[in-house]
Amino acid sequence: MSKRARDIQKALSASGYRITQPRRAVIEVVARARRSLSPEEILARARKIDPGVGLATVYRTLDVLQAEGHLERVRIGNRGYSLACSEKALHFHLICERCRTVTEIQSDQFSGALIAQLQAVGFESRKSAIEIIGLCAKCQSSE
Amino acid sequence: MSKRARDIQKALSASGYRITQPRRAVIEVVARARRSLSPEEILARARKIDPGVGLATVYRTLDVLQAEGHLERVRIGNRGYSLACSEKALHFHLICERCRTVTEIQSDQFSGALIAQLQAVGFESRKSAIEIIGLCAKCQSSE
DNA sequence: AAACTTAGTGAGAATCGTTCTCAACAAGAA
DNA sequence: TTCTTGTTGAGAACGATTCTCACTAAGTTT
Fold first, then answer.
1. Within 7 Å: CB of A17 and strand C?
2. Minimal C-alpha gap between A43 and chain B (Å)
3. Does the CB of B75 have a partner CB in chain A at under 8 Å?
């Protein structure tokens, strides 16, 4: 089991959630993911660890992980995708609409300017991640 | 009919689209909207202008308007909302998840910082709008 | 270790937003 | 006015997500 998965399990347990076999499997999959995965993809991978996992449980576990701040869901087009996230305060997700890879970027300069603007307008940002859809460098060249 | 609606119709016509009654109604609704509207809401309003409009046509017209750059679609949670947009190059949508009002903000400072970052990573942004979900000033105080 | 409480589960039905299908219609050109 | 064909409405179809419910098992209490 990965360290990341263990940490998440510990945190969930501390928050009063039960650590069940299906949850273990989903957490392990999400913790190991190198790109964003759709719920169906997560299901397929989780079933390699625990064959009995159901799709509903994947959704439910994703909800829990999101509520507890261990994961963010990003969207590409009309489909929803799930992504393990870091704990950085204000960061951006560059989502490649072709290969679905998610690159996180951060810039203090940018963050500062944005936060100042948000305060000026009095807007309270609840989603700490900002998503920019487009094409990553790789997919641009191979298109 | 609003000036905005007339302009959009002219542009669509110039692009070879037919200006039909249902389209006229949807365009009028979108042009007049002061906040983002769901397709269902647009349908309801459009039917006050042309009672025969169907939901499919609302979706189709939204697609056309988006393709022609007269509108952007933003999402709140799992629901999709539609929004009339300005023509600014790089702007942000502050979407209030409570009242659905969309505030556009812009700042050369952070636009510059962001563009620099994107170029550094080699990412090509295809969606010019960035969406920040949260609570507007009004809804914060009345919560 | 056994019993107990109840959060969590899988399967499939239900729901929701969106897209598709297709015969009928009407916009705009001739 | 006629003609061509892009556009339409209704409802079926679709895909993603949520719900329902009887059953299971995690973690606590004995």
1. yes
2. 20
3. yes
pLDDT tens digits, one per residue of A115-124? 777 877 888 7
Q: Report strand pairing: B79-84 vs A79-84.
A: unpaired
Name the residue with tokens 């949807």: B26
Residues 6+ apart with CB under 8 A from B28: B1, B2, B5, B46, B49
Q: Give B71: exposed, middle or buried? Use CB within 10 Å, 0-12, 13-18, 19+.
A: buried
Q: What is the CATH code for A91-138?
A: 3.30.1490.190
Average pLDDT over residues A52-63: 96
Cβ contact (<8 Å) for A127 and B135?
A: no
CATH 3.60.10.10 fits A3-84, yes or no: no
Chain-chain contact of B126 with A134 (C-beta, under 8 angstroms):
yes
**Domain spans in chain A, listed from the N-terminal domain onward:** 3-84, 91-138
Asked if the C-beta of B136 comes within 8 angstroms of chain A's C-beta atoms, the answer is yes
Min CA distance, A64 vs chain B (Å)?
A: 16
* CATH no. for B91-141: 3.30.1490.190
pLDDT tens-digit readout, A8-48: 999 999 999 999 999 999 999 999 887 778 899 999 999 99
A13 strand D contact, CB < 7 Å: yes
Q: What is the pLDDT of residue A75?
A: 66
Predicted confidence band of residue B26 (pLDDT cuts 50, 70, 90): very high
